[in-house]
């Protein structure tokens, strides 16, 4: 390694859960030591190992710099800031970009395009989201303006659509009217039916997360789970349609719905009974991250890497969620606590909060651990792009000691049938 040149790179520029196509070195006693071989995933564990050792700068050898620059451009949207490859400042460390991000995150609701039928008039404004910009797309501009029909080309555009949180009640009315109109006239396709079920479920989960201490909201969660279980058991096609989503941004309510749906799907493969097993699993899966609603959104949704202290605060969502459900005026089935308590446990014992090993983790905990990690990987985050399902599963296969391998096989089969 004598004359080899090395270039410093901040760990901020390595995105968790991506494959690093280059080697990374660390510097100890004035020597560059190989830390990670090329073409390996960069996991959260690896990052925290670096942080624990106070390493914030790693080194890339001259021969790997081209691979690093390619990686850097693939994982950092150049439109989001005008940084050059030389400075490598994470865009979300810039206050104006961070403010824009939180403005969208906290004030808009991501709607699914497949429930928007061209020609039907709507009385709220729909916006198009392009990176961190939100622009008016269609619908009346001001309250009281005449309703405007949904444009014909709504499904042609790639950009996700969002509505203002303050228009959610109008959106809910639109969905209700849509069900009535479709069932009285042309009938309703499975796809549209599933889209409406998804949107209504998302709205309920949002309410639960916005006001988790309200016992009525827990009651509403139960009826969402009942509907999902019935729909999934009713028809295989429905399950795959429920999983079909058009917006991939991360929102806790989207994630909760996905974890619930996938857990029920996996539960069916394990021949769990509808009552009470699938229902209890589904309810726990839907509420698995409810504790996040009690944590500062600026930390929970921080568009960048967490500090050690922030990471500990985030980990607290498991205990917070459990306490919330214990204190609820509604009785929650005992087994529904397992997904909440154990979805971050790992078979290897390296999970949290209890570092439980193997069969000490309940089946519901093992199911939700797989589904939770997978769904997080296939969702866009500001600091990394979503992985394709195949790559997410490949990444998980790199950690065979962390996930129940029998369940993993079933999960892969289940997703294989979807595609
Ligand atoms: Fe979680």
Structure commentary:
The protein is an alpha+beta fold and about 425 residues long. The chain has three domains: about 5-90, no CATH class; about 90-165, no CATH class; about 190-419, Hypothetical protein af1432. It is built from 16 helices and twelve strands. It has helices spanning about 45-50, 65-75, 95-105, 170-185, 190-210, 215-235, 235-245, 250-270, 275-285, 295-300, 310-315, 315-325, 335-340, 365-375, 390-395, 405-419; strands at about 5-10, 20, 25-30, 30-35, 40, 55-60, 110, 120, 125-130, 135-140, 150, 160-165. Strands 7-12-9-10 form a four-stranded antiparallel beta sheet. Helix 4 (about 170-185) runs antiparallel to helix 5 (about 190-210), helix 6 (about 215-235) packs across helix 7 and helix 8 (about 250-270) packs across helix 14. The longest helix has 21 residues, at about 190-210. It is globular, with a radius of gyration of 23 Å. It starts with 5 loop residues before the first strand and ends with a helix. Bound molecules: fe (ii) ion (FE2). The site of fe (ii) ion (FE2) has 4 residues, from loops. The site of fe (ii) ion has 4 residues, from loops.
Total domain modules: 3
CATH class of the largest domain: Mainly Alpha
Biggest sheet statistics: 4 strands, antiparallel
Through-space gap between termini: 46 Å
* Overall residue-averaged pLDDT value: 87
| Total number of helices | 16
Strand content: 5-15%
């Amino acid at each position: 390694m004598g004359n080899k040149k090395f270039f410093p790179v901040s760990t901020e520029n390595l995105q968790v859960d991506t494959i690093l196509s280059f080697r990374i070195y660390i510097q100890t006693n004035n020597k560059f030591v190989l830390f990670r071989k090329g073409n390996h995933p960069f996991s959260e564990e690896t990052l925290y190992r670096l942080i624990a050792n106070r390493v914030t700068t790693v080194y890339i050898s001259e021969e790997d710099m081209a691979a690093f620059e390619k990686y850097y451009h693939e994982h950092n949207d150049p439109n989001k800031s005008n940084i050059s490859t030389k400075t490598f400042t994470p865009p979300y460390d810039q206050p104006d970009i961070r403010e824009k991000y939180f403005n969208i995150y906290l004030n808009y609701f991501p709607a699914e395009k497949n429930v928007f039928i061209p020609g039907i008039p709507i009385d709220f404004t729909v916006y198009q989201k392009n990176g961190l910009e939100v622009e008016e797309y269609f619908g009346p501009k001001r309250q009281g303006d005449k309703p405007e029909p949904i444009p014909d080309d709504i499904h042609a555009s790639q950009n996700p659509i969002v509505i203002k949180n303050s228009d959610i009640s109008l959106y809910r009315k639109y969905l209700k009217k849509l069900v009535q109109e479709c069932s009285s006239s042309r009938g309703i396709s499975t796809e549209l039916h599933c889209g409406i079920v998804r949107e209504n479920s998302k709205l309920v989960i949002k309410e639960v997360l916005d006001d988790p201490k309200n016992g009525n909201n827990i009651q509403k969660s139960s009826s969402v789970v009942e509907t999902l279980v019935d729909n999934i058991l009713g028809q295989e096609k429905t399950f795959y349609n429920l999983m079909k989503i058009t917006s991939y941004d991360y929102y806790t309510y989207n994630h909760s719905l996905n974890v619930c749906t996938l857990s029920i799907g996996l539960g069916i493969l394990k021949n769990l009974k509808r009552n009470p097993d699938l229902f209890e699993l589904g309810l726990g899966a839907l509420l698995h991250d409810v504790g996040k609603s009690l944590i500062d959104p600026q930390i929970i949704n921080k568009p960048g890497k967490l500090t050690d202290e922030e990471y500990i605060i985030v980990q607290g969502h498991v205990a917070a969620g459990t306490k919330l459900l214990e204190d609820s005026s509604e009785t929650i089935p005992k087994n529904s606590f397992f997904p909440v308590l154990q979805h971050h446990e790992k078979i290897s014992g390296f999970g949290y909060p209890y570092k439980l090993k193997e069969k000490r983790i309940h089946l519901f905990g093992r199911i939700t651990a797989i589904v939770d990690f997978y769904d997080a990987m296939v969702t866009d985050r500001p600091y990394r792009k979503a992985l394709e399902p195949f790559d997410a599963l490949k990444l998980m296969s790199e950690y065979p000691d962390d996930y129940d391998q029998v369940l993993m096989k079933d999960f892969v089969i289940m997703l294989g049938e979807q595609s």
